[in-house]
Specification:
The chain has about 90 residues and is α+β, with helices and mostly antiparallel strands. It has helices at about 15, 25-30, 35-50, 80-85; strands at about 20, 35, 60, 75-80, 90. A 3-stranded antiparallel β-sheet has the order 2-1-5. Strands 3-4 form a two-stranded antiparallel sheet. The longest helix has 14 residues, at about 35-50.
């Protein structure tokens, strides 16, 4: 039996479909429709640029004025909760 070469994983079509951000989310990542993966990249770039990651507990993200509406008014969320909250601000 011939051994196959390492096949490149294809990203799920659902992740690659452009999503339209809500008005609140577009304040942070821009209003252009982008795939979910790109939304996450832009969000993390914004968080790092504005030093919104908690220094002691890196899993916690602090909300500034732009992120508070996206985080449902919470002052701080963990990174797993953040992805759940952000998905509510995306439309196919």
């Amino acid at each position: 039996m011939a051994k196959k070469g390492k096949s490149g994983r294809k990203p799920s079509a659902a992740f690659m479909r452009p999503m339209t951000p809500s008005a609140a989310l577009s304040e942070v990542i821009g209003s252009k429709a982008v795939p979910r993966t790109e939304v996450t990249k832009k969000l993390w770039a914004y968080i790092k640029k504005n030093k919104l990651q908690d220094q002691k507990n890196k899993r916690m993200i602090k909300a500034d004025e732009a992120l508070r509406p996206v985080f449902g008014g919470k002052a701080q969320v963990n990174m797993f909760e953040m992805t759940k909250l952000v998905s509510k601000h995306l439309k196919a």
